Amino acid sequence: MPRSPEQNRAIREKRKKQIYEAALGVYRERGYYGAEMGAIARRAGLGRGLIYYYFKDKQDLFISLIRFTLLHWKERLDDILLSGEPVADRLELIMKSFYSLSHAFPDISYFHQTVSRDVKVLFPERESEVYELYEQYILKPVRMLMKEGVDRGEISIPPELGERFFFRLLFEAVHHENMIEEKELDQWVKTALYGLVNHKKNDSQSVDDTPIEGTTKTKC
């Protein structure tokens, strides 16, 4: 009995996921140039020809991997962005979520940290396509959140500067060679974001010049 379109789709997705996982592992061990398609096929337990059935070449495979992993991150990011929390709280949630993903999936974190800095070298003919993926799924949503924070008086610096500052802090937190300890995360995030947030004095912190009962104010 022939398979249904849904079954074929499920098989394709399963095999592509196998290939992605294998590619991440081989990339972590050998880097981009050492990640040969044959090695990825062996790691995935699939024939080399099947890899080329799904992907035109190695460049196509790794750009598809960038898109696949960023799309999953974007789904989590959208949940945070649409939560309605204050901007500072959403930025904190984004940073913690990114940390959690990096901690749970270190190969994906390492992949993006290294690939994103070498896009022009690794994908010279498709660099604009790769940059657009990072722009669409990561940079633009955070930039828009920064703009919202500035418009609402919650963020103290311009959106573009805030975006650069935020991602510098974020990548420092999850850097594969010096990832901060999980037990330090809460305090680190609050300290890191302190420079972004517009710290307004609460009414309770202002000086109350109402005379204490039983006394009178002295006129100068």
Automatic annotation (TrEMBL):
Domain HTH tetR-type: 13-73
Pfam families in alphabetical order: TetR_N
Keyword presence, Ligase: no
One function term, GO molecular function aspect: transcription cis-regulatory region binding
Coiled-coil ranges per UniProt: none
Keywords: DNA-binding
DNA-binding region: 36-55
Name the UniProt record assigns to this protein: Transcriptional regulator, TetR family
